[in-house]
């Protein structure tokens, strides 16, 4: 299996570069993608814990309030929704973010004008390698799985709290080890993290047995209004502020609804079309490795993983978005 060997060698090389990069840093700003999910948050919190233990000051930075579900996982010194003085920092650590345009950075700052040495650690296959040092490994089910591997190779101890954050990311990006990005390495990683004191019970309870009634109401409305096409192989639904309001639900509650819909028998491709003001967000999933919906996301101007991707467009009506989507999905299914 030459590719596997090659990937391991590349990963070892990248991790060595990261080792040198961390050695030269005293004070890091840690950032992730906009609308952070469990993997993004788990990556930021675990890295903060771990790197602080290595004597590096760390400031986790977010541009928006953290989703309720994840409030209990935050670390001290987290900065949310505020401007921040960048002068003290000597490095920018970017986690779980495929390119510099998706980064949640301090207001009115672009990646270029921040101009800090940057280390980019991620598992998206289409990562643009925008850092000075890049540890990109698409075979990892989550960025936290990659971080766990990396911290192991670097010999950085992982505290129980950091292990909990790492398993949080792994659990969320694999949908509780259900999605087909789950590998033997994911299970080994999870087992090692539980050995290391990760609170798996707490993660599973807070993520899967703790649904607010408003979300279930929203789910039931979404299921009532699903649209099917191509003999049931494609299912999609729209989310509007109106619908959220009627259910008393928040945007964050709608985040993983697509994973409830993709379980329907016979469905191969799933899409959520979310409209807020002038912005339309597409979230796409495929159940079939031969139907890489990443291609559709790219056509819509977005990106992601082969079988889980998304895109954002402005100034399109739902009807236009729908027509475009049916076109692209039809082409993919016809292959
Ligand atoms: Mn991820």
How many domains, in number, for the residues?
Answer: 2
At the fold tier of CATH, the topology name of the largest domain is: inorganic pyrophosphatase (n-terminal core)
Helix content: 40-55%
* Alpha-carbon distance between the two ends: 28 Å
* Quaternary class: single chain
Query: What does the main sheet amount to?
Result: 6 strands, parallel
Low-confidence stretches: 1-5
List the helices and strands in order: HEHEEEHEEHHHHHEEHHEEHEEH
Strand order of the largest sheet: 3-2-1-4-5-6
Overall geometric form: globular
Characterize the structure shown.
This protein has 335 residues and is α/β, with parallel strands linked by helices. 40% of the residues lie in helices and 19% in strands. The chain starts with a helix and ends with a helix. Manganese (II) ion binds at residues 39, 96, 123, 142-143, 173.
């Amino acid at each position: 299996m030459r590719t596997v060997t090659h990937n391991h060698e590349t990963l070892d090389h990248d991790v060595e570069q990261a080792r040198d990069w961390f050695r030269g840093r005293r004070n890091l700003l840690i950032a992730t993608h906009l609308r952070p999910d469990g993997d993004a948050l788990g990556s930021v919190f675990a890295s903060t814990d771990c790197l602080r233990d290595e004597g590096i000051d760390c400031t986790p930075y977010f541009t928006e309030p953290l989703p309720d579900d994840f409030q209990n996982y935050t670390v001290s010194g987290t900065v949310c929704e505020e401007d921040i003085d960048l002068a003290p920092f000597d490095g920018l650590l970017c986690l779980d973010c495929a390119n510099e345009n998706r980064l949640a950075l301090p207001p009115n700052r672009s990646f270029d004008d921040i101009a800090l040495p940057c280390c980019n650690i991620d598992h998206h296959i289409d990562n643009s390698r925008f850092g000075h040092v890049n540890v990109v490994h698409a075979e990892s089910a989550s960025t936290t799985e990659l971080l766990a591997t990396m911290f192991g190779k670097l010999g950085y101890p992982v505290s129980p709290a950091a292990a909990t954050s790492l398993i949080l990311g792994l659990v969320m990006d694999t949908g509780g080890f259900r999605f087909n990005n789950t590998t033997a390495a994911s299970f080994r990683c999870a087992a090692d993290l539980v050995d290391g004191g990760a609170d798996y019970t707490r993660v599973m309870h807070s993520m899967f047995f703790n649904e607010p009634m408003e979300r279930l109401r929203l789910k039931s409305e979404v299921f009532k209004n699903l649209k099917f096409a191509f003999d049931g192989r494609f299912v999609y639904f729209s989310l509007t502020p109106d619908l959220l309001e009627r259910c008393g639900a928040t945007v964050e509650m709608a985040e993983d609804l697509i994973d409830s819909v993709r379980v329907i028998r016979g469905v191969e491709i799933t899409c959520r079309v979310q409209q807020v003001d002038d912005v339309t967000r597409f979230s796409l999933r495929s159940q079939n490795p031969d139907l890489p919906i990443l291609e559709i996301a790219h056509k819509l101007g977005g990106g992601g993983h082969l079988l889980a991707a998304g895109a954002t467009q402005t100034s399109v009506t739902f009807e236009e978005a729908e027509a475009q989507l049916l076109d692209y999905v039809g082409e993919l299914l016809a292959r």
